[in-house]
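Aim 2, interim progress: modelling of the magnesium ion-bound target.
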Amino acid sequence: MSKPTTYRFSFGPWNISEGADPFGPEVRPAFPHEEKYALYKPMGFDGVQFHDDDVVPGVDDLTPDQIAKQAAKVKTMLGNQGLVPEFVAPRLWFAPQTIDGGYTSNSAKGRQYAKDRTLRTIDIAREVGSKAVVLWLAREGTYIRESKNARVAYERIQQTINDMLDHDKEIEIWIEPKPNEPTDMAFVPTIGHAITLAYASRDPKRVKGLIETAHALLAGLDPADEMAFALAHDKLGSVHLNDQNGLKYDQDKNFGAANLRVAFNQVRVLEEAGYGSKGEFIGLDVKAMRTQKGKCVTSHLTGSREIFMHLVDKVRSWDKKLEKQFVDARDYEALELAIMKHLMGVK
Ligand code: GLO
Ligand code: MG
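Predicted structure of the complex, ligand included:
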């Protein structure tokens, strides 16, 4: 048997938030990014997920030289803390130029801005020491379908991927699919869409997916099966584990908090595929509850990590012989009861 995977965990500084939501102001005092980085290691996390402007604040107003200097500063800071930059993602959804989307905007100027900013994100990723850029295609979609030609939009996304691959010969692109929010109907809603774009690209090896639990659930799909699909194609760049209580706004609940069995199956699929053995991170994308008190709230992160590790124990201690016996007998009722008892800790 191969050695059990030692998992490494990551999260992005936005996961330590001030608790604002669309209906009200921030409920916790601001906590500067620089102070957040010092918290990672003691909490059991080794990887930092970044947006381009987490690394280089005000990136749009800086020269390439200033950008490179700031990225180098962050690289040194990470090195001092013993942290690894997992990926950098262009934050394309805040700028006035991207109100109607980035790569799929109906405005040629808007599209140009999105392309320029994305190529700059690749430079930032390289300078900070990461070989991956995540594309969460936040505003690539529509509020009414007639407003964009979806076929043309997909061609534009494909072109952007090729432009990115041309810009840097080593960078990997990890597409993070999501079916809706902030748009009503998003382009690239599932991992199947993302992987099709990968195979149709100039360098399929360098285009992969990042699967977020909640996003798969919002698409009405099982996150473990989505992960299995990507793993079968050797295209799971990373994951954003969290949870989602039914079809509503994107909740980013603690991993396993809404559906422990669905979480167990994600861990099972990852573990059985040896995910993590090539340095892939267990990324979290979880939000603290708005009700949580404190200056700097991190218990949702450590809690999700702990739940993940308990589920790893559950996967490793699951009786595979019993599973085989029930599968061979096609007695899935017995298999289900055995799984449920295992999860409940009942003999
Ligand atoms: C939102 C996404 C978002 C991305 C992040 C990295 O629904 O999950 O948090 O993961 O911006 O690209
Ligand atoms: Mg995410």
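The radius of gyration is 20 Å. Residues 171 and 215 are 24 Å apart (CA to CA).
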